[in-house]
Amino acid sequence: MFAVWKKQQVLVGLGVFVVFSGLMVSWLATLAQGGAQPASADTNWGLSFQQEGKTPVGNASPEFLAQYDACYAGSEEKKVIYLTFDAGYENGCTPAILDALKKHSVKAAFFVVGNYIETSPELVKRMVKEGHLVGNHTYHHPDMSSISEKASFEKELASLEALYEETTGEKMQKYYRPPQGKYSESNLQQAQELGYHTVFWSLAYVDWYQDKQPSHEEAFEKLTGRIHPGAIVLLHSTSQTNAEILDELLTRWEQMGYTFGTLPELFKETSSK
């Protein structure tokens, strides 16, 4: 499964790269001309950053996502960050990340796949012990938007739930992140019917290539320059750069006046609106 995950890194790059290169030309043209934000899309998750310090525009509106207990950002009125990590395999970076989170008393969410729980059960247990949320990134990390049958969709989530419960002795909390950011409206509905919140993101950067890690300066530029109130930040726990800068990054965000929230707090807030 490790080999499968490594091959999928290329696909992950293609999916998440949309965050940085923008959306499709036609969609950007519509936005530039003042057109309405699309209500929904069957696509890769994508963002358009239009103003520094402000929530980017997603290729599905907050109102559309809320119908399915999904979101990509919190309130623009509160300087709160929701920190999340996608964890597909372990390469030695997660302990330093957990150390930095503990130092700053920050509770994050780790979206894990089957391979991660199988190969790194002690780290998963540490996440739970230290108060972090462990979310569902599916068992095999497939393109979920290509799965139309509800039974097949459910199996990807339920298999990971079972492994997590077997490993930790606890029920998995119902938070789901689509692999590669690929989704469809039917996926959102299926996840909702299974009791899940679907969690996208409003800030990420290219941090997943093992042999092409960003410099510290590049990382700080992206992660402090584009931070905004209510940001759901996506980082990868496989990134050496993230492991090396996280302590200082958290300090910088704190100096900018930000605090850190949890996904349960975020969805409680959005559901009360």
Uncertain stretches = 1-41
Enumerate how many helices there are, as a single number.
12
| Helix-strand sequence | HHHEEEHEEHEHHEHEEHEHEHEH
What percent of the residues sit in helical stretches (DSSP H or I)? 40-55%
Structural class category: alpha/beta
Report strand %: 5-15%
**Through-space gap between termini:** 42 Å
Q: What does the main sheet amount to?
A: 5 strands, parallel
What is the rounded Rg? 17 Å
Shape: globular
Q: On the 0-100 scale, what is the average pLDDT?
A: 88
Quick one: how many beta strands? 12
Can you tell me about this structure?
Helix 5 (94-103) links the parallel strand 5 (80-87) and strand 6 (109-112). With 273 residues, the chain is of the alpha/beta class. It contains twelve helices and twelve strands.
Question: Briefly, what is this?
Answer:
The protein has 273 residues and is α/β, with parallel strands linked by helices. The chain contains twelve helices and twelve strands.
Summarize the helices and strands and which ones pair or pack.
Blueprint: H1 2-16, H2 18-21, H3 25-32, E1 43-44, E2 47-48, E3 57-58, H4 62-66, E4 70-71, E5 80-87, H5 94-103, E6 109-112, H6 114-119, H7 121-129, E7 133-136, H8 150-168, E8 175-176, E9 182-183, H9 185-193, E10 197-199, H10 216-225, E11 232-236, H11 240-255, E12 259-261, H12 263-271
Parallel strand pairs: 4-10, 5-6, 5-11, 5-12, 6-7, 8-10
Antiparallel strand pairs: 1-9, 2-3
